[in-house]
Structures are given as structure tokens and as C-alpha cells.
Design goal:
Structural class: mainly alpha
Number of helices: 7
Distance between the termini: 18 Å
Radius of gyration: 13 Å
Strand content: under 5%
Helix content: 55-70%
Largest sheet: none
Length: 102
């Protein structure tokens, strides 16, 4: 799962809209849109840590995931990736909010 897909899925699991997430992460909603569209990955540690806190995930893991996609298994623990991939292959919409763990 790519970083931007994780951010979007986790935001949906927490029932935040982009503006709510932006406010909690202390960044603009336009920046959230760029992250979720895969245009940007934050480089500033403060932004990454604020975003991790807003998404309620471990800061260090989130930093590593943003830069290296290192611990893929932990990302999978937040979302059922098999269902996401299956929906891509069948061109159906997958509601991530139903399958994410807390």
C-alpha cells in the first residue's frame, strides 16, 4: 500500500474529512489533498509527527513508512489490503471505512 493510500484510508476509518484532518495535523487542507493525491510526502518531521498524531498511529513507524515503506505489515494491520487490491482488479469501489481496524 502506498503512503497516500494509507493516509486516505486511515482518515476515512477515523471518520475525518480533509479539513478536520488538516486542522488536527495543523496543516492546510490543500496540503492534505496533495498528500492523498500522491503529489507530496511531507519531509518536515514536525508535519509528519503532527499527521501521525492526527491519524492516531505511531510517529516513528509513520515516519519510516512515509520515507521507506518499511513496515508494510503494520500498515496492513490498519486496513485489509487484500480487499482493496481485489476491488482494483474488479473495478469496484471498496469502502475502507468498513474494514479498517482501530
Amino acid at each position: 500500500m502506498k503512503f497516500h493510500e494509507f493516509v486516505t484510508s486511515r482518515r476515512l476509518k477515523l471518520n475525518f474529512n480533509k479539513k478536520e484532518l488538516a486542522k488536527k495535523a495543523k496543516i492546510s487542507d490543500a496540503y492534505i489533498k496533495h498528500i492523498e493525491d500522491g503529489i507530496r510526502i511531507p519531509k518536515d518531521m514536525i508535519i509528519l509527527y503532527n499527521l501521525a498524531d492526527a491519524l492516531q498511529v505511531d510517529r516513528e513507524w509513520f515516519r519510516d513508512y512515509a520515507y521507506l515503506n518499511r513496515d508494510h505489515q503494520k500498515a496492513v494491520s490498519y486496513i485489509d489490503e487484500q480487499k482493496v487490491n481485489q476491488s482494483r482488479s474488479t473495478s469496484t469501489t471498496y469502502n475502507t471505512a468498513d474494514s479498517l481496524s482501530s
